Amino acid sequence: MAYKIDASECTVCGGCEAECPNSAIRMKGDAYAINPDKCTECGGKFDEPQCVAVCPTDSISKA
Model pTM? Predict the structure, then answer.
């Protein structure tokens, strides 16, 4: 299951997009969004999803 970004809490800092090893995060309108087809939750690469690790507002959670 992919992660999602709560646009109302996101500060649009860009940290998650830069850290995503799968290029699953992109701007959509005026907020970031995670493409569920590309999101692997960083499985096999990291102990925790990198987007979650760098998000300063905790606006990323399981979909």
Answer: 0.91
Q: Which domain holds residue 7?
A: 3-62
Q: Which residues contact 28 (CB under 8 A, 6 or more apart)?
A: none
Total number of domains in the chain? 1
- pLDDT per residue as tens digits for the range 5-51: 999 999 999 999 999 999 999 999 999 999 999 999 999 999 999 99
Q: In a 3-state reduction of DSSP, which class is residue 52?
A: helix
Residue 51 φ/ψ, nearest 5 degrees: -65, -40
The residue assigned the tokens 């925790």 is: 48
